[in-house]
Amino acid sequence: MELFDSHCHLDIADFDLDRDEVLVRARDAGVSSMVIPGIDAIRWDTLLTLCQSEEGLYPALGLHPMFYKKHTVDEDIRQLERYLSEKSPVAIGEIGLDFYDVQGGTNAAGAGRRRSGPGRGAKGESIQYEIFEKQLSIARDAALPVILHVRKAHDEVLQRLKKYKVVGGTAHAFNGSVELAQRYIDLGFKLGFGGMVTYEKSTKLRELVKMLPLESIVLETDAPDMSPTAHHGERNSPEYLPEIAQVISEMRDISVDEVARATTNNAKAVFQL
Ligand SMILES: [Zn+2]
To answer: For residue 235, what is the DSSP state?
Structure first.
């Protein structure tokens, strides 16, 4: 069985102590390929070095919307343009819009242990638009797919995907209606599903995973965040990807091999590998 983790933050510090062991266990579990999406420019070099050191690790470079306060926009965008030709990332990501209002709380879904967030009150819409649109324009010019992070901003994102005519990509940690999923699919996107589908209480999400065409699904862990139910409260890891494939195979009443084969092919197609 060959699995593809389309979204895994293996570069971040949570894996510094045992990254090699995690990789060995992930390989043993059949996870032969991973895309490592960028979060901010400071970590791009580490991410690229990691991807060079191992077969099957593919870098994506981008400025994550949740960390808009940390990005030095003009400088980071210039570096991104330079790195496109020098370092050959497979995608621009993760990028998008995050208008989830954290009003005094911690940003649990997706933020995990990482610092920062949209901040209290102001969600930084205009700066998020600027950073997102600049990266969409770069992706379009380079004919590269994008890895999307979207919260409370699907209409705003879809509108811009149409405007900038990007080649497609993945909508990471998708959790919306079938109609919304179809709007992404129509624009050449695959929908990323991870640990959330392993929770029985995720009834809507599981229903969605059952109904979507198999060609539109990619698997992801989003490690170290979004752990599947068997590892709730622990660090997530790419080695748990088979648990997600297993749940999807049960939901759709097909073999786990079929899920693995299809989702791996989908990921390879969307990342042009
Ligand atoms: Zn992510």
So the answer is: P
* Residue 7 Cα to ligand 1 middle (Å): 6
What separation in Å is there between the alpha carbon of 8 and the centre of ligand 1?
7
Helical pair 178-186 and 154-164, crossing angle rounded to 10 deg:
10
Q: How buried is 145 (Cβ within 10 angstroms: 0-12 exposed, 13-18 middle, 19+ buried)?
A: buried
- Domain containing 254 equals 3-270
Domain count, the chain: 1
Question: What CATH number corresponds to the domain at position 41?
Answer: 3.20.20.140
| Cα of 39 from ligand 1 centre, angstroms | 8
Q: Give residue-wise pLDDT tens across range 123-147.
A: 899 999 999 999 999 999 999 999 9
Tens digit of each residue's pLDDT (9 = 90 or more) over 69-86: 999 999 999 999 999 999
Residue type, 81: E
